[in-house]
Design brief:
Length: 138
Amino acid sequence: MDIEELRRVRALKANVDILEEELRALYFPYSSPNAPKSGGQNPNRGGNPTEQAYHRIERKKAELEKTRAEYLERTVHIEEWLTTVEDLEVVAIIRAHYILNKTWKQTAKMVYGGYAHKETPRLRVERFLEKQTVRNVR
């Protein structure tokens, strides 16, 4: 396991959240950023607006499901790896920051009870992963 894989999972979680928000916005066209400001149909677009909206929603759903599946697959891989990690502090930090998508400040508060600087958990994980890499190279 390396830091890039953990960051990838965090980015996937953010993408899932963003896609869910975009999908919700498509169900309420007047709150959608693509909605015309006049409140009506865009006169420059022809065709059936209901059908167009339906196809946009279906494409967004497919994209969301694909991203969600990749996120879940990678999360399961990380969870399996975490069962082999003996340092429970590192396990808690990785779960809080990379899986639950908490900020470093929130992670520090969760793991250390608010007594640690926000950089403490980040440095702890980075040092742990560096040691793991050195062990695997030998």
